[in-house]
Design a protein that fits this description.
InterPro entries: PfkB_dom (IPR011611), Ribokinase-like (IPR029056). GO terms for molecular function: kinase activity. This is Carbohydrate kinase family protein. Keywords: Kinase, Transferase. It is a single chain. By secondary structure, the protein is α/β, with parallel strands linked by helices. It has a single domain, classed as Ribokinase (UDP-N-acetylmuramoyl-L-alanine:D-glutamate ligase, 3-Layer(aba) Sandwich), CATH 3.40.1190. The protein is 30% helix and 27% strand. The protein has 9 helices and 17 strands. Strands 5-4-1-8-11-12-15-16-17 form a 9-stranded mixed sheet, sandwiched between helices. It has a 4-stranded mixed sheet with strand order 3-2-6-7. A two-stranded antiparallel sheet has the order 9-10. The protein starts with a strand and ends with a helix.
């Protein structure tokens, strides 16, 4: 019986700086207006997106923030949603923050992050007897210092956490951070052994599997089935989903069904920012999984949610209730 979704891991204060273009090394870039303080990280982004998709959905936020200005911002933003329970957020250290350089020409964003309290989040913060949930999403692997530590029995502490969740009868979901280099092979496969739903982007899938999925600006879609199956072979039990700008690909690990769906062709000027689109896609797929929808329908939720996110500057401001998101999905053609 459905009991709600928990989202654990990164809680971040985002400070977004608009710049005319991203500079070359050694060049000067001028910061414009407005400079925006917002929230980011897997917990803030995914849980607020879920809260907007379904205001009746029971949600629990799990992680660590500092007793400082950034922590207060995060707690205040989460408290604005009556269906988000913040009682499992601990207060230690200094709140993590990210300086986001937002290129006004390309709409791409470059991130400089201070891990802060996120590196303290560990197994001791998981109060299993107080988590009345049926699905736990954890993000991001490679950006949670204590959970990325090795474990002699499970491979990593993250893998141990996911195993403990399953022992509580809770389904598990993971996401990974992009751009962490060669640590993928050491940190991601151990977690996948205890993962029900793996929802990552094509660059993360490429680094996890070693299978080329992008050549410059071109997606190598022909390689995607092999990458999905390799991730399944690493231990994922139910769904492997990989998203990219061009669309999304999924594998139902039980039936063997492969799904490929294009992203929406959005009109010129529609995209205001890209920083939260991946987490929005993840939230849509998670909601589909939680509701017992087929993989293809869950991916449709993900594509619709990502398109909503792209309509606003911040990480979660563009998200809408599910019915409105699906109406947007019907408004524009697919790639």
């Amino acid at each position: 019986m459905a009991k709600g979704i928990g989202v654990a891991g990164n809680l971040v204060e985002d400070i977004i700086y608009p710049i005319p273009r991203y500079p070359q090394s050694g060049e000067l870039a001028t910061i414009g207006e407005p400079i925006i303080r917002s929230t980011g990280g897997a917990v803030c982004n995914v849980i607020m997106d879920l809260a907007k998709l379904d205001a009746s959905l029971a949600l629990k936020a799990i992680g660590v923030v500092g007793e400082d200005e950034g922590g207060k911002l995060i707690m205040d933003r989460l408290a604005a949603y009556p269906n988000i329970d913040c009682s499992q957020i601990a207060f230690e250290g200094r709140t993590a923050f990210t300086a986001v350089m937002s290129d006004e020409q390309t709409k791409q964003r470059t991130f400089f992050t201070y891990p802060g309290a996120n590196d303290l989040f560990s197994l001791r913060h998981m109060n299993w007897d107080q988590l009345d949930i049926s699905l736990l999403h954890v993000g991001y692997i490679l950006l949670l210092g204590a959970l990325d530590q090795p474990d002699p029995d499970y491979g990593t502490k993250m893998a141990q956490l996911l195993c403990q969740a399953r022992q509580q009868g809770i389904e598990t979901s993971i996401d990974v951070v992009s751009g962490a280099g060669g640590r993928f092979q050491a940190l991601v496969p151990p977690a996948l052994k205890y993962t029900d739903y793996c929802i990552i982007n094509e660059l993360e899938a490429e680094q996890t599997t070693g299978i080329p999925l992008r050549a410059g600006d071109a997606l190598i879609a022909a390689n995607m089935p092999d990458a999905l199956r390799m991730i399944q072979d690493m231990g994922v039990a139910k769904w492997v989903v990989v998203h990219a700008t061009e669309g999304a690909f999924g594998l139902d690990c039980i039936s063997g069904e492969l799904v490929q769906m294009g992203s929406l062709v959005l009109p010129k000027g529609y995209i205001k920012g890209t920083v939260g689109a991946g987490d929005a896609f993840c939230a849509g797929v998670l909601y589909g999984a939680y509701q017992g929808k087929p993989l293809k329908e869950a991916i449709r939720y993900g594509i619709a949610s990502a398109a909503c996110s792209l309509s606003a500057e911040g990480s979660t401001e563009g998200m809408r209730p599910l019915a409105q998101a699906l109406s947007l999905y019907e408004e524009y053609p697919l790639r």
